[in-house]
Amino acid sequence: MRIVCSLGDPHGIGPEVILKSFLKMQRCGHSMVVAGSLQVMEFYRHLLGLPIELERIDAPALSQNLPPCSCGVLPVISVAEPETILPGTLSAEAGALAIQSLQCAAELCRDGICDALVTAPIHKEALALAGCKDTGHTGFLGRMFGVPSPIMMFADARTGLKVALATIHEPISRVPSLISSMDLEGFLRQLSGALKRDFAINEPSLAVLGLNPHASDGGVMGSEEGAVISPAIERLHNAGMHIEGPFPADGFFGSSRWKHYDGVVAMYHDQGLLPFKVMAFESGVNVTLGLPIVRTSPDHGTGFDRAGTGTASEESFYEAAMLAISIAQHRNPTGPVQ
């Protein structure tokens, strides 16, 4: 499989975790290429003293066979070269490079040149300084591929935990109205289908969390469970889907009930991500479901406080690459793109 990595914010830990992951991937027969900046990658390779050879490559050259990671040479497509590289700092130039890198990498997957995209972390404020209106990878890729509502899901291979978010980067004040107005049933069908296609789970079982404390206790603490969430679950259950809920989120995770399901649906960002990151902070992976391309990412941010120090852990990025390969193989069991 051919994996393309977007650079992420060049002032964050993205280049470091890409390089360290490449060292680990030398044990496999897959290929990796970075879309971004040879200058940035060389800066961090030299700063960290990593035994990797970098090679500039043009996008058209990818139509030929890429060498496997085991050869020790990491190809880099330079979409732009920054005037300055200042680890740990916020800048419009860094945000612009991050989004150019993402665009190039996504196009390589769109055009069938690469099999999967692994994105290094971007900084939302840097994107805004660069004039980008998207708040993250998911929104950008959804707009690029004409997918109005791609699903953000987090997966951990070590525990088996998978948490999908019904709403993503939304203020808490907006969540109830969004849940009430969204096509929750369609969202759950899409999630079930993605688990079948991308994770080879023949009959996925889903647990749905309630929005309100205690899942509203029969309507005492909110109406969304009775009006929206429970009816959607009941209709899907009657149609043959393995789905249960709504469950109170605190007891659900505290009792380890999540272990009995293939996927958990949280109503909002922190409801799902707080327990997930407690259990899988180093190894968790963010995967975007519903896109025509395969896209994964580490579940951490740019780590400006660690950028350039050599202390960033590559575990989450490496796991993201391994999951991307697995999903790509499920989608294309006959082999990699030629």
TrEMBL record:
Its EC number is 1.1.1.262. It is an enzyme of class 1 (oxidoreductase). This is 4-hydroxythreonine-4-phosphate dehydrogenase PdxA. The keyword Oxidoreductase applies. The gene is pdxA. The keyword NAD applies. Keywords: Metal-binding, NAD, Oxidoreductase. InterPro entries: PdxA_fam. Gene3D superfamilies: Isopropylmalate Dehydrogenase (3.40.718.10). GO terms for molecular function: 4-hydroxythreonine-4-phosphate dehydrogenase activity. Pfam families: PdxA.
